[in-house]
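> forwarded from #structure-qc
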């Protein structure tokens, strides 16, 4: 079985889910991505991406119990599947392969 193709936002979302573990729910994933990518994606973009990853079999999700506050809502928590873990490993191998033989491109601008 081949590894599904994933885009850059999908890869970033998979990495966020892996990083956040038990705390991988929509808003936490969005905050993690904003902090690491320096860009604030819309809620819709994040949930569309997470749904697409779930459709590809790279994530699963479940709803939590409602938060213990008045009007508390449940959260949709995400977990990597085995295929999701394999996709991350494949992306890592591909990135290492792409960078092989490339020296530093010079000093970073200040």
């Amino acid at each position: 079985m081949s590894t599904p193709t994933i885009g850059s936002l999908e890869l970033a979302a998979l990495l966020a889910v892996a990083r956040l573990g038990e705390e991988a729910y929509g808003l936490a994933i969005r905050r993690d991505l904003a902090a690491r990518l320096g860009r604030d994606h819309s809620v819709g973009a994040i949930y569309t991406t997470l749904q697409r990853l779930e459709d590809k079999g790279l994530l699963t999700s479940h709803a939590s119990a409602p938060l213990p506050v008045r009007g508390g809502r449940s959260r949709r928590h995400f977990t990597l599947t085995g295929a999701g873990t394999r996709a991350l490993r494949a992306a890592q191998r591909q990135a290492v392969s792409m960078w092989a033989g490339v020296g530093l491109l010079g000093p970073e601008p200040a």
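QC bot note: The mean pLDDT is 89. Residues 68 and 74 are 10 Å apart (CA to CA).
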